[in-house]
Amino acid sequence: MENDATDDVTAGEVPDTEAAVDAVGVTAEADHGGGLSFHPMDQFIVKPLFGDAGDPVYWYTITNATFWMLLTVACVALLLIVATRGRAIVPSRGQSVAELAYGFVHKMVEDVSGKDALVFFPYIFTLFLFILFSNFLALIPTSFSPTSHIAVTAVMAVAVFVTVTVVGFVKNGTAFLSLFWVSSAPLALRPILAVIEVISYFVRPVSHSVRLAGSIMAGHAVLKVFAGFAALVLAAPLAIFGVVAIYGLEVLVAAIQAYVFTILTCVYLKDALHPHH
Amino acid sequence: MEGNVAEMGQFIGAGLAAIGSGAAAIGVGNVAGNFLAGALRNPSAAGAQTATLFIGIAFAEALGIFAFLVSLLLMFAV
């Protein structure tokens, strides 16, 4: 009897949840679906590429987030493998772009973190190119921006945080803790500073990830807000100028945020390798 | 004029927290302006300090991001 009852409950639950998901999907579409009256945050919805809500296909196909991340990886591979295949002494356009990016990040790691940090150069270069390309691909109209999602940037920031902490303890042992003991400050101030330093150390992954996700998300939302003005005849010129101006700004932000994420990784790595103030 | 007072407080708090973003903008402007002032006095030394400029901007911006985060939490998570 009890088994039967539980069976009934589970059998009853499955269609219920599907119906609920169905309803959510339908209302999300119906509330601000077509036309010019859209919600600025609609562009950040992660949804499967194929199938309708409720289909089994719906749950097992890749989402738009997966697709644009794969496209990012493909573009990076295209730049670094195909464009540099010629290995010419006088480089082609593609090859010189790849060489410039390589040289730029290599110099950054060397200048900021020191020569012994070059072991981590492949990791940092990967992070830089992934963020840069995903930011630039997100600027294609109707595309999806993976770096606007805190889930994507948090994974990268936490990976950097864990790497840096492990490297710090492996290279320096317990001497790594001297990072929190500011020896240049007066002795009475040091315990207070130690508390502040510890807090700021653990807040690093938060600010590291939210900075990237926040600026990309805010920029794209502002673009859509200006685009929404096009629905009003009087505000339509404002929409055109606004979208053009913000788009130009977003190109700049895309590059700068990739640079900032990378250089902060280098700074954190420098702290791990040389913790003495 | 019906509504939830807690929700109203939530939205007012989110708006107040967003003031912090403006304060961070002042900070970032301060960093960049002082860099420019220094760079125009000694342009030959400026090129080597661009990394420092961006690190300074990033740290000033971090506190604005916390304000933004508090605002987001009030809007969507509380």
TrEMBL record, chain A:
Keywords of this entry: ATP synthesis, Cell membrane, CF(0), Hydrogen ion transport, Ion transport, Membrane, Transmembrane, Transmembrane helix, Transport
Gene Ontology terms for molecular function: proton-transporting ATP synthase activity, rotational mechanism
UniProt-annotated location(s): Cell membrane; Membrane
Membrane topology: Multi-pass membrane protein
SUPFAM superfamilies for the chain: F1F0 ATP synthase subunit A
InterPro entries given in the database record: ATP_synth_F0_asu, ATP_synth_F0_asu_bact/mt, F0_ATP_A_sf
Record-annotated membrane-spanning stretches: 57-83, 117-138, 150-170, 177-203, 223-244, 251-270
Pfam families for this protein: ATP-synt_A
GO cellular component labels: plasma membrane; proton-transporting ATP synthase complex
Family assignment from sequence similarity: Belongs to the ATPase A chain family.
Family matches, as HAMAP family: ATP_synth_a_bact
Biological role stated in the UniProt entry: Key component of the proton channel; it plays a direct role in the translocation of protons across the membrane.
Name this polypeptide is given: ATP synthase subunit a
Source species: Jannaschia aquimarina
Automatic annotation (TrEMBL), chain B:
Residue ranges the record marks as coiled coil: none
Chief subcellular location: membrane
Record-annotated V-ATPase proteolipid subunit C-like domain positions: 12-74
SUPFAM superfamilies: F1F0 ATP synthase subunit C
InterPro entries (alphabetical): ATP_synth_F0_csu, ATP_synth_F0_csu_sf, ATPase_proteolipid_c-like_dom, F/V-ATP_Csub_sf
A GO CC annotation given for this chain: plasma membrane
Membrane-spanning parts: 12-33, 53-77
Site feature: Reversibly protonated during proton transport: 61
Mode of membrane association: Multi-pass membrane protein
Keywords in alphabetical order: ATP synthesis, Cell membrane, CF(0), Hydrogen ion transport, Ion transport, Lipid-binding, Membrane, Transmembrane, Transmembrane helix, Transport
Subcellular compartments: Cell membrane; Membrane
GO molecular function: lipid binding; proton-transporting ATP synthase activity, rotational mechanism
The keyword Transmembrane helix is annotated on this UniProt entry: yes
HAMAP family assigned: ATP_synth_c_bact
Function per UniProt: F(1)F(0) ATP synthase produces ATP from ADP in the presence of a proton or sodium gradient. F-type ATPases consist of two structural domains, F(1) containing the extramembraneous catalytic core and F(0) containing the membrane proton channel, linked together by a central stalk and a peripheral stalk. During catalysis, ATP synthesis in the catalytic domain of F(1) is coupled via a rotary mechanism of the central stalk subunits to proton translocation.
Family: Belongs to the ATPase C chain family.
Annotated protein name in UniProt: ATP synthase subunit c
